[in-house]
Amino acid sequence: MIKILVTNDDGIDSTGIRALADEMRKIGDVFVIAPAEEMSAISHALTLNAPLSYKKMDDRHYKIFGTPSDCVYLGVVNIMKDRPDLVVSGINSGCNMADDITYSGTVAAAIEGTILGVPSIAFSLFGNPPTHFDEAAPWCGEIAKSVMESRLPKPTLLNVNLPDGNIKGYRMTRLGVRRYSQNVDEIRDPRGKTYYWIGGEQAEWDHIEGSDYVAVNEGYVSITPLHLDLTDYKFLKEIEHWNFKNPDD
Ligand code: MN
pLDDT tens-digit profile of 71-94? Predict the structure, then answer.
């Protein structure tokens, strides 16, 4: 039986991780190793400057006082004696498409799994907030089975976004482009101190054919393969011809 590490960034008590863990139990031996608190938009942070601890709820549930990446690192290297065969992260409450993957703790957990050499998938459900986690979960299960059967190349992970109900099928996609509102709310507290609330506006994406956003918007599960090598190889050829001078010349 395969061993599956289930984590997320919404916290161990969230609806999405329960739906995902229930589904994964049909495929393998599931270890839920997830943050005690919500850690959305924490990205790939690891806890290095503070002691990291966890609470073992039972043999298969571990509440980590840390980030999603901490959960995967601790889970793979320490908690799960034999390494997991698969890391799955989610199902996140809200999508992680386009440029948002750079902020996402959900995706970062799958990146951490990939770095540690374990096939990894991030699952996110569109909606603000989404509600159809139970409908999404079997689709996640099928994708996990396919990954176990067909194997992912290294270092590649899958970033999956699902529509919130009435799912029509799958589409293989590229990352889209998000339009950020670049909005900052400036608010004064009762003592006159100013504080700021960033990024509160409704999310919007460019309508790019073949993108994650278009797939989910049209009712399809979006599957985007992500590669960890972010090098821009096309531009590398051009920047080689730039004229960088040594400071003393
Ligand atoms: Mn989240």
Answer: 999 999 999 988 999 999 999 999
Model confidence pLDDT, tens digit, residues 206-242: 999 999 999 999 999 999 999 999 999 999 999 999 9
- Domains annotated on the chain, with CATH: 2-176+207-239 (3.40.1210.10)
Cα distances (Å, whole numbers) of residue 149 to 27, 64, 91, 170: 12, 30, 21, 17
90 CA → ligand 1 middle, Å: 8
Alpha-helical (H) ranges within 48-156 are 68-74, 105-115, 133-150
- CA neighbours within 13 Å on the CB side: how many for 184? 5
Backbone angles phi, psi at 188, to 5 degrees: -105, 130
**How many whole angstroms from 51 Cα to the centroid of ligand 1?**
23
Q: Which amino acid is at 92?
A: N
Centre of ligand 1 from the C-alpha of residue 193, in Å = 29
pTM for the complete prediction?
Answer: 0.94
How far, in Å, is the centroid of ligand 1 from the Cα of 108? Answer: 11
Q: 243: CA distance to ligand 1 center in Å?
A: 43
Q: How far is the CA of 122 from the centre of ligand 1 (A)?
A: 11
Residue 106 Cα to ligand 1 middle (Å): 6
